[in-house]
């Protein structure tokens, strides 16, 4: 094959961290102007390989060719000189500056007398925005942007630096379904203008809908590189995980008759609550969840989901309305997370880094966070660290958490394994009410299957489950009943069989069900 | 465990190297004032360690530094920056002395614990104001504790001047003899002349208690979790405000307790300015000691030695040289420890 046809070639890249291989002879070939998906489970070495390409890591072995020429990329600066740009998962923006100011940061146009030529900066920025249809206001403050806009700004920064190769690390993890659609339009536009795009992801549906070719990594090695046409979700998943993966976890749906007889575990009536910013987030919301059912709550983010979770988990005081758990009315004044846990609550928070884990604590210490006052784990004078380590080792075994080392810092684990810690901890409470939010966000397919199975097992054990997720397929594949939340109220509730993505989508946008 | 030992040894090595480096740089400043660095350092070393009286003085100066160092370190664990140690120590000292010269009829077995508890309680009382302000209103403790320092100083100065001073002095009357703590020269005759006293052992015991509290108890587990990720701690059902209040109060109590060394172990009265900045030095001790009780002992001894060293080399160089050395030690130790941390992180993750 003619080597010059490739824009990027990574050949036999090996990168070791201590005694661990992150990449072991990994290879990647991408043609000019294509949208190339790089997929693999967490820890498969995708990000490491891309950081090698972006000059953040020096490979221990291997060759890099850009536009047919062997190069060495010792720093991100060198990568930018080669017209390679990368958007990281966590954005790197200065919130107090405007869009244009962020774009020019580091390459400021200078006008008369060495002063910053802001007009020129804004004009250059606007030109790029129009060319790639990015829909941003150059003079807007970054602090006022939505996540989707911030991401477009990151791409804009690369375009301003004349990048021809764009590496995007998990770009859709933070976006709502609507934003994703728009984001894909931009990616296609970039590709049609001759830009080469590498998309790191583990959402296989997205791979199929956007990419022209795909490279699959597993345990530091590239296992296959194929044109996307002709692949399927299950085929890709099998390559990623190394075994067949089930997408629809088997479950027996609860019938309306069964649910009728089942006692209510959670009863919420006319709940009103303020958001942290002081506007009404919950506006007379009512819902009821029965023993042994999964109630899926669908909705565009920001319609009161977070506040509902906070009220139910004792972290926010409602303005009015009532919450009953197993028939017992919760007194908002004396409520706390600890009180709710004592009533049989378990809580998988929506943001594991912020709320689910103390990343600097070990896996074992995290495994008892919130349960650490239980007699099995401590007396008032002493933590029972031996007992905690034994418990953690058991959970690590049950949940297949990798690496299986209770004393390892939780922050050193991959996202999927971190999420398994949170799920293991919360389900080990043997809850009667489980509030689980975005349980598989940023988690790879193998772990998604496992976490879904565990949630269904918990339901089958008689727990009432409130599932909040931005992923409609997740809601549809797990729930017995589905409610749509819109502007702080439940717009409508469906049985699992009547619900479709279209019906839910319409209600989520504020429409009426037909 | 093995990894921890290795990390400890690396840390110790780096710290010692940093102290050495600060002495080297300090030598230039000594040359600037036309003195001989070798001679100054030899005198200093002899005067603060080798000679028994000097060693006792170093221990005496280190004692309250250990306590304020612990006070700051405990706060840091929960992300509380208690700059009010100075004021808490002043109030603790005043309460301690007042009890000591008021309840003179009590036997030692009662009066000593009472005065000790008074010192601790005085510090707690003074810390309770910024603690409650922080929890109820979110007022930042750096501001409020500094203000409380001014109030503490002004208040005690007023009380002393208006009511409690002995004529022609700025100190109170003596506390009861039964409240005085034994000096170390009772046991080690070579320490004769130094006020080093048994408060030193209390400081050592507090270090052990601190270690146990932070690393072994559920309270410590919760405190560290709050310091590292308050959101996750709250979601996990930890009562953040309750913990912050308790931590702030204990921190204040430890600062107040630092007064015992002077009041019950040395002069046996309360005197204006007796703290000599020990509350503020606690910040440096906690930082250099990396919030670790054993590191804090090391740091307190180091700063105690330098503090006594001022007198030792007084004849050779101006006392400002010692202040320069102190500042250099802080700069070198803290920056080198940060570098070592980065290096070790790379070792484990890279």
Structural notes for this entry:
The complex is a heterodimer of chains A (514) and B (350). Chain A is α/β, with parallel strands linked by helices and 514 residues long. Chain A has helices at residues 46-53, 76-81, 99-104, 118-131, 147-160, 177-192, 204-210, 233-241, 256-261, 305-312, 337-342, 352-356, 363-367, 385-399, 415-427, 445-460, 472-478, 501-508, and strands at 6-17, 20-31, 35-39, 61-66, 69-71, 84-87, 165-169, 196-201, 213-218, 221-227, 264-274, 280-290, 294-298, 320-325, 328-329, 345-348, 378-379, 382-383, 433-437, 464-468, 481-486, 489-495. In chain A, strands 6-7-8-3-9-10 form a six-stranded mixed β-sheet, with helices on both faces. Chain A has a six-stranded mixed β-sheet with strand order 16-19-20-13-21-22, sandwiched between helices. A four-stranded antiparallel β-sheet of chain A has the order 2-1-4-5, covered by helices on one side. In chain A, strand 11 and strand 12 form a beta hairpin. Chain B has helices at residues 2-32, 37-50, 52-77, 85-102, 108-137, 141-164, 199-216, 218-228, 230-235, 240-257, 260-267, 278-288, 293-312, 320-349. Classes of the chains: A alpha/beta (514), B mainly alpha (350). The interface between A and B is medium-sized, with 31 and 23 residues.
């Amino acid at each position: 094959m003619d080597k010059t046809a490739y824009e990027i070639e990574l050949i036999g890249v090996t990168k070791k961290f201590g005694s661990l291989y992150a990449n072991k002879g990994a290879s990647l070939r991408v043609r000019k102007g294509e949208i190339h998906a790089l997929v693999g489970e967490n820890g498969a070495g995708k990000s490491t390989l891309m950081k090698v390409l972006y000059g953040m890591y020096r490979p221990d072995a291997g060759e890099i060719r850009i536009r047919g020429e062997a190069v060495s990329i010792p720093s991100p600066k060198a990568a930018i000189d080669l017209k390679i740009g990368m958007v990281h998962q966590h954005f790197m923006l200065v919130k107090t500056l405007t869009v244009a100011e962020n774009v020019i940061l580091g390459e400021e146009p200078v006008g008369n007398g060495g002063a910053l030529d802001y007009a020129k900066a804004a004009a250059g920025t606007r030109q790029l925005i129009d060319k790639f249809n990015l829909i941003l206001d150059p003079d807007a403050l970054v602090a006022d942007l939505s996540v989707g806009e911030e991401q477009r700004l990151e791409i804009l920064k690369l375009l301003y630096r004349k990048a021809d190769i764009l590496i995007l690390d998990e770009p859709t993890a933070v976006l709502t379904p609507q934003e994703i659609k728009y984001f894909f339009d931009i990616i296609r536009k970039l590709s049609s203008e001759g830009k080469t795009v590498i998309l790191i992801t583990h959402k296989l549906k997205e791979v199929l809908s956007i990419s022209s070719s795909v490279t699959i990594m597993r345990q530091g090695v590239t296992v296959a590189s194929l044109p996307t046409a002709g692949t399927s979700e299950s085929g890709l998943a099998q390559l990623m995980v190394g075994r067949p993966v089930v997408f629809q976890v088997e479950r027996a749906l609860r019938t309306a008759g069964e649910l009728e007889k089942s006692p209510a575990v959670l009863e919420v009536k006319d709940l009103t609550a303020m958001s942290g910013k002081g506007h009404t987030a919950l506006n007379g919301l009512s819902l009821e969840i029965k023993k042994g059912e999964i109630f899926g709550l669908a909705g565009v983010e920001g319609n009161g989901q977070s506040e509902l979770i906070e009220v139910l988990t004792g972290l926010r005081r409602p303005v009015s309305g009532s919450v009953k758990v197993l028939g017992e009315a919760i007194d908002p004044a004396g409520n706390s997370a600890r009180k709710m846990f004592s009533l049989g609550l378990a809580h998988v928070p929506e943001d594991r880094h912020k709320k689910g884990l103390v990343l600097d604590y070990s896996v074992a210490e995290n495994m008892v966070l919130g349960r650490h006052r239980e007699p099995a784990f401590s007396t008032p004078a002493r933590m029972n660290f031996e007992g905690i380590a034994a418990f953690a080792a058991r959970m690590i075994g049950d949940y297949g958490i990798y690496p299986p080392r209770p004393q390892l810092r939780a922050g050193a684990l991959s996202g999927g394994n971190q999420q398994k810690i949170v799920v293991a901890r919360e389900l080990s409470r043997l809850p009667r009410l489980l509030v689980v939010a975005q349980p598989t966000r940023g988690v790879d397919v193998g772990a998604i299957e496992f976490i879904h199975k565990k949630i269904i097992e918990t339901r089958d054990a008689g727990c009432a489950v409130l599932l909040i997720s931005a992923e409609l397929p997740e809601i549809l594949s797990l729930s017995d009943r589905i409610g749509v939340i819109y502007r702080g109220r439940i717009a409508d509730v469906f049985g699992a069989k009547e619900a479709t993505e279209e019906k839910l989508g319409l209600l989520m946008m504020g429409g009426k069900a037909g | 465990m093995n990894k921890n030992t290795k990390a400890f040894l690396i840390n110790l090595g780096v710290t010692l190297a940093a102290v050495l480096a600060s002495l080297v740089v300090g030598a230039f400043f000594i040359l600037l004032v036309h003195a001989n660095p070798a001679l100054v350092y030899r005198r200093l070393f002899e005067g603060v360690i080798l000679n028994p009286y000097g060693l006792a003085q170093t221990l005496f100066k280190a004692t309250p530094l250990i306590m304020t160092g612990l006070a700051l370190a405990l706060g840091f664990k929960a992300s509380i920056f208690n700059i009010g140690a100075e004021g808490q120590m002043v109030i603790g000292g005043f309460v301690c002395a007042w009890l000591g010269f008021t309840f003179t009829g009590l036997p030692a077995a009662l009066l000593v614990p009472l005065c000790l508890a008074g010192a601790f309680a005085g510090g707690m009382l003074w810390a309770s104001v910024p603690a409650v302000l922080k929890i109820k209103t979110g007022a930042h403790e750096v501001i409020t504790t500094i203000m409380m320092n001014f109030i503490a100083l002004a208040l005690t100065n007023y009380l002393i001047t208006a009511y409690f001073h002995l004529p022609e002095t700025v100190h109170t009357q003596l506390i009861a003899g039964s409240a005085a703590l034994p000096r170390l020269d009772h046991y080690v005759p070579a320490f004769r002349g130094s006020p080093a006293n048994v408060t030193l052992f209390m400081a050592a015991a507090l270090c052990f208690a601190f270690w146990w509290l932070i690393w072994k108890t559920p309270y410590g587990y919760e405190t560290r979790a709050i310091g590292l990720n308050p959101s996750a701690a709250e979601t996990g059902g930890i009562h953040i405000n309750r913990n912050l209040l308790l931590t702030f109060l204990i921190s204040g109590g430890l600062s107040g307790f630092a007064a015992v060394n002077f009041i019950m172990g040395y002069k046996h009265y309360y005197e204006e300015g007796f703290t000599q900045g020990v509350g503020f030095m606690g910040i440096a001790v906690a930082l250099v000691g990396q919030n670790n009780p054993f590191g804090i002992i090391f740091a307190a001894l180091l700063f105690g030695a330098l503090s006594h060293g001022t007198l030792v080399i007084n004849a050779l160089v101006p006392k400002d040289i010692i202040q320069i050395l102190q500042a250099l030690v802080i700069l070198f130790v803290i920056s080198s420890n940060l570098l070592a941390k980065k290096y070790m992180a790379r070792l484990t993750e890279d």
